[in-house]
């Protein structure tokens, strides 16, 4: 440690001593932990043990329970995708992605921010539906007032009504024809597996229409900036360098996030 002042040298020595004491304390805690007779580590820092076992089924009931558990785990893994597809999330996230692409800001706002905003807007839009499900399905079922089948029917009705309001008849007739079922007379005659894809393509169509309308003003700015640069002979200057600040300024001046959010929420109402 040549060239170091005495005060700095003393501080470094103290830091080394403190680090050594901390390392010794941690290591001594692990060393003092000895395995007991039951195979569990005893001491200051016990280590958890996780084990999975497979046993022979003693009867058909055990096999049925195992299959139900596997089916439940499979449904839980697909639950996020199912919830996204039957709510307003699809339209909202596509519109927000169109806004970012129209602005040309690449990764600004970040994808995590867009997804978070889409999730909270989805929760805001779907809150009346979730409230009906809670009042008519979850609470009565937990209070043992209705059966599981009745709770499922009560929970599916609000979601079906929401999807029917946002689905075009043309899309419904398409999937009814593809499913080769009888022409339904009422909404209750349409199965859920026919309603969900009809709702999804209707949401995609609505999202792309909104995205097209969002692109128009920003496209005009790009064309004007490119024409001005060409007329000035500035062919080596990328038009994006000039149009990007103008598009951001326009979006801020018209309060774009307020307008887009209002249009999205009012579109579902």
Keywords summarizing the entry:
mainly alpha, two-stranded antiparallel sheet, 9 helices, 2 strands, 1% strand
Lay out the secondary structure.
Layout: H1 6-32, E1 34-35, E2 41-42, H2 60-85, H3 89-103, H4 111-142, H5 148-166, H6 169-179, H7 192-231, H8 239-253, H9 256-268
Antiparallel strand pairs: 1-2
Written account of the structure:
The protein has 269 residues and is mainly α. The chain has 9 helices and 2 strands. It has helices spanning 6-32, 60-85, 89-103, 111-142, 148-166, 169-179, 192-231, 239-253, 256-268, and strands at 34-35, 41-42. It has a two-stranded antiparallel ribbon. Helix 5 (148-166) packs parallel to helix 7 and helix 7 packs across helix 8. The chain is elongated and about 80 Å long. Mean pLDDT is 75; it is low at 29-34 and 36-43.
């Amino acid at each position: 440690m040549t060239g170091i002042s005495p005060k700095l040298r003393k501080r470094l020595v103290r830091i080394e001593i403190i680090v050594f004491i901390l390392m010794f304390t941690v290591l001594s805690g692990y060393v003092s932990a000895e395995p007991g007779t039951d195979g569990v580590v005893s001491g200051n820092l016990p280590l958890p043990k996780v084990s999975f076992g497979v046993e022979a089924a003693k009867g058909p009931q055990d096999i049925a329970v195992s299959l139900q558990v596997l089916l439940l785990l499979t449904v839980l893994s697909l639950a996020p995708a199912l919830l996204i597809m039957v709510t307003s999330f699809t339209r909202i996230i596509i519109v927000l992605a169109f806004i970012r692409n129209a602005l040309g800001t690449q990764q600004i706002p970040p994808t995590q921010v867009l997804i978070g905003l889409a999730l909270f807007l989805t929760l805001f839009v779907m809150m009346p539906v979730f409230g009906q499900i809670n009042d008519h399905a979850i609470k009565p079922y937990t209070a043992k007032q209705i059966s599981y089948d009745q709770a499922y029917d009560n929970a599916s009705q609000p979601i079906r009504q929401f999807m029917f309001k946002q689905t075009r008849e043309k899309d419904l007739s398409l999937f009814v024809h593809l499913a080769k079922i009888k022409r339904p007379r009422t909404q209750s005659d349409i199965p859920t597996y026919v309603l969900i894809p009809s709702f999804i393509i209707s949401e995609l169509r609505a999202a792309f229409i909104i995205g097209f309308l969002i692109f128009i003003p920003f496209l005009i700015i790009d064309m004007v900036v490119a024409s001005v640069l060409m007329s000035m002979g500035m062919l080596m200057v990328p038009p994006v360098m000039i149009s990007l600040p103008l598009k951001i300024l326009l979006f801020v001046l018209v309060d774009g996030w307020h307008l887009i959010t209002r249009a999205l929420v009012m579109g579902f109402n």
